[in-house]
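Supplementary Methods, section 5.1.

A reviewer requested that the exact input to the structure prediction be made available. We therefore reproduce it here, unchanged from the version used in the analyses.
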Amino acid sequence: MRFAVLISALLLFLFASLAPALAWWDEGHMQIAYLAYKRLDPAVKDRVDVLLKVNPDYSNWISGAPDEATAKLYAFVHAATWADDIKTKADYTNDNVHDPNAGQNIGYSDHRKHAFWHFKDSLFSPDGTQLPAPDPVDTVTQLKLMIATLPAASGASDDLRSYDLVWTLHLVGDIHQPLHDVGRYTAQISSGDRGGNAEMVIPATGETIILHAYWDRVFGGYSSPFGAVFDADERGGLADVTPDPNAALISDPAVWAQESFELAKKFAYAAPISNGTDAVLLTREYETNARNAARSQAALAAVRLANMLNQTLASIAPGQSSAQPDRVTLCTAIDICYCVNRGYRDKIDANVVRMRRLIAENRQQGRAIGYLSVPISPAGGGYSPYNVKVAGDIAADVEARFGKRAVWILNPAAEGSKEMEGASGADYMYMWTTILEGPKGNSEDFDFFYFAGPSDFARSFKLPAVGTLEALDDYFDARVKDDTRFKNAVDSGAVTKAGFRNYYGLRAAVSFSLGSHDEWNIARILNERRRGVAELGIPNQIALFFDGKPVTPGGYESPAASGDVGRCIK
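The structure derived from this sequence is encoded token-by-token as follows.
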């Protein structure tokens, strides 16, 4: 038994030492691809599959799939490893980053391995060792080139778009592995460590392994699509990791690489990693931090990959109609129309049923029913998790003001449902409009709307009566120190100090929210309809509050600019 364990450890060491670095190894890339696939719009899944079929390995990717839907999933998941698979293909040759054609993008006729496409080595030295010039071609240059080629409107051939798709599936994973975005130079490693490939470590499992390979193998080694899907969905698996919503919106590969570079310096090269090449024994703290950072990065990569594909593959080819086939114009009972993603129709309908049931349960208990209109999006300089917290504080304040036994307020930040993640503003607004108008179109389910104002936000942030902007500067500094997710959003550029201060000090209110503009107009239309119904009329209009105060009669009838309202363009 001891001999078998020794042989296994020796084989692992040899594999890590001799094989080229493969970010996350197969299992990690496949899990990222699987989680991204679950977020793709239905029409985008079909377009992806059409492009993947151009790849010569497609038939191997779908081997063993029990049905067509699973075959499409397996193909997407397996395609994420193709850029590593070609490293072992006999008809693919090595090339150099300084070759004249190092960054060429010509499709499957290119039989070069392009190993340097997998990295963006931002260089640094902890001891002042001289740094060389950066490489002219890297993950960032190629990702930007390929992402621009993916839309049908680019005019590129399906061969090139397919080639760029499989590379993109892989490189988005690579760029989120911290050691794929860094090169460290020290007096002992004067020629550079190539992203942790010069240092050796000894983890708790006892073997000696290259630092880069230690990070690559966090999610396991070789796997099948079935195995990757199973592992991701397993309790405590990667599917349970929720990325920062602000960070997920960042679409620039250069920013992705910079984030990973900073994480590498903070976690990959943390103690006990030395400036030399001798093997060091990893501490429990190091391994815990490494695993958490890797899981967070992989989950973030999946969301960003899905967002990017949903955007780039929803575009049209030259000469085609500009109508998006995966979106449809849907109008509510009060004739407000939105351009809605077809893939969310069932989810929207299910949420409407669920919310009406919840409203009915509270109505049966004799409560007045309210709706909270509050900005959730970070647009304008905010931070979504804090907006969600503010929404909860405002809802609690309103219920306390009127009495919890007497009132229940629908807080959209708490009731949007996990199934709606990735939906557009129009998707959400079609859902909320349907809920707000009620089965008869007179908002018969609601008694009042509460529109959040600056005083509500100030109360949640506990801002003083004077010096509010200075207080927000101090609040920002404190949160950077004690809120890791917020700090990551700041480090990535998604949140800035001035933008944060000015948003929460000057603009944090429904007056600056697209969705809330629509909700104001919905309230106005519903009250107009009530005034025209004999049994309702002016005495039974929906009560409207803004910033804690009742809205004046003239305000009831004043329209606001539209936010997400609008038909699909044809």
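The chain has 23 helices and twelve strands. These observations are discussed further in the main text.
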